[in-house]
Amino acid sequence: MGLWPFGRKKDDRSVDTLLAEANAASPTGAAPAATTADPAGQVTAQPGDGSFRMPVQDIFSITGRGTVVTGRVESGTVRVGMQVNVVRDGGVAFTTEVSGVEMFRKVLDTATVGDNVGLLLKGLDKTDLHQGDLLQG
In this structure, what are the phi and psi dihedrals at residue 11, rounded to the nearest 5 degrees? Predict the structure, then answer.
């Protein structure tokens, strides 16, 4: 079992068991893998398989533009004009369209895994969204 710096581990569950339990407890299930291994054994990053996921970290209301949500893209790719669902408590609360993608004051067409972005959403007020909501597309 190996040495554990804080005394004896009380739990002998494997990493696979812990991941399965975490995925079962997640309201949206398991997140798709962001990397794959090619036949040569090298790990390559994928821009996304179309299953976009981003938890909402903060919400802003910009006069004349609309509502902006910020967060880090967990999986997939988001594009301007893409339809996304706002998931809350395991169910879809709203469906909206992404009308803008910005990263560090640069206007982008797309954002991929690992990008910290702000998404401008059509037709939603700041009060419709909550920190911790999940955007899926």
Answer: -125, 125
Single pTM value for the model: 0.62
Beta bridge partners of 119: 69, 101
What CATH code is carried by the domain that includes residue 121?
A: 2.40.30.10
Range from 1-5, 92-96, 116-120 carrying the lowest mean pLDDT: 1-5
Give the Cα separation of 28 and 31 in Å (integer): 8
Instruction: Supply the range of the domain harboring residue 85.
Output: 53-136
Q: Burial, 96: exposed, middle or buried (Cβ in 10 Å; 0-12, 13-18, 19+)?
A: buried
Which tokens in the block code for residue 19? 């991941």
pLDDT of residue 3: 59
Token pair for residue 28? 């949206």
**For residue 24, pLDDT beyond 80:** no
CA pair distance 61, 125, nearest whole angstrom: 7
CA-based R_g, the chain, Å:
18
Please say if the pLDDT value at position 118 is more than 90.
yes
Q: What is the tally of helices (H) and strands (E) in the chain?
A: 1, 12
